Amino acid sequence: MKQVKINLPNLTDFEASQCTDTTRAASSGGMSIVNSVNGKRLTLNAIILDSLSHPDSIQIAYTEGVIAIAKNLGDKHTDYKLSKSGKMSVIYNTALVKEIVERYELDYSERTSLTFPVLETDENDGEVIVFIQMKSRVPEVENE
Between vectors from CA 35 to CA 29 and to CA 37, what angle results, nearest 5°? Predict the structure, then answer.
């Protein structure tokens, strides 16, 4: 087999890239919401799952700027089944994603996924509750 020699341009003839290298700031997001034409889902990372002792399902409740996630928030709350995906768990529920997107007026115009940080965890009647920050500024509540 005969090798073909290609005449490559001289390196001085190449033009340098004008882009700068950018990296996104790493954040320890706890919950991601995918909202695309190919699917809608909510993903919980290992931090949340560890805090809740890896439940099979969770319940979700809302306030103005925060979502509460727990194994049990009460009888009036819906149980959402979790599907395992590596170290994370996923809720495949179009109606839930639409509800969250509308409630918090989330903008997916230039993306298909948004990630939100764990604000804190707390315990109420022996039940661990994980709070997710949905707005950049969470309204402060005065202690009584």
Answer: 150
